[in-house]
Prior knowledge:
Largest sheet: 11 strands, antiparallel
Strand order of the largest sheet: 4-3-2-1-15-12-11-8-7-6-5
Number of helices: 5
Helix content: 25-40%
Mean pLDDT: 86
Low-confidence stretches: 1-20, 230-235
Distance between the termini: 31 Å
Number of strands: 15
Radius of gyration: 21 Å
Structural class: alpha+beta
Amino acid sequence: MVCLLAGLGWAQVGWARTNDNGGDARAIIQAAVKAELAADDSDHTRWRYRDLQKELNNSVSIVVQTGHGSVKRLISRGGQPLNAEEAKAEDARVQEFIHDQGKMAKQRKDGAQDDKSARELTKMLPDAFVWRIESDDGEKVTLHFEPNPRFDPPNMQARVLGTMAGKLVVDKKQHRIETISGKLLEDVTIGWGLLGRLHQGGTFRVERREIAPGLWQITETHVHIEGKVLFFKNIGQEQDEVQSDFTLVPEGTTLEQAAEMSKPAK
Length: 266
């Protein structure tokens, strides 16, 4: 995502002109949110990358993004590459997937909904929490956040967000969010507890890095939240995902080309 606010100095957003730590922190997170939303609007790059899911027996996949959808190919599990039979079955699955219009449409719809939710939650950050500066090394500033008692969450996702406390690290030069981590301070009930409950102590951490000049991507996601929903069905969310080896995908790449690009190097 190209940062459109590269020329925006920290003093211009006002935080350097006040002795109020809370005011400083709020101005910083407001500038970071503004930069993230602007970058989201302007970035149309797509990537090929390696995706490691530790919670799935250290499964490694190659993901290739295109304008038509993404192709994800499993290449190893438990530290071992797929054998010939497994690789053949995975290739058949990939081919079936990219030629199934229904599955591709669902992937695009789900992705658009995820992007919309992420954007809405990002907008809520300044108001959902009380912020203060924890440290500043000149290049990065670490903010501490805790629930804002005056925040009125508009939906369940915002309710969960608003019961967390944690830290957020901002790159000062580009105003981009590098790390956000938090912990549930209390149980979150759904339907007065009759429909579900997320347990106190659940944690998450998301790491983002600049993988090319002005272009940032999520490189790590760690979620450990437990709970029950709909008559005691477990909804525990255990995710430890690491993304690496990013390379740009040429504009106009087809799904068939992406399927070939997703194959591991021989």
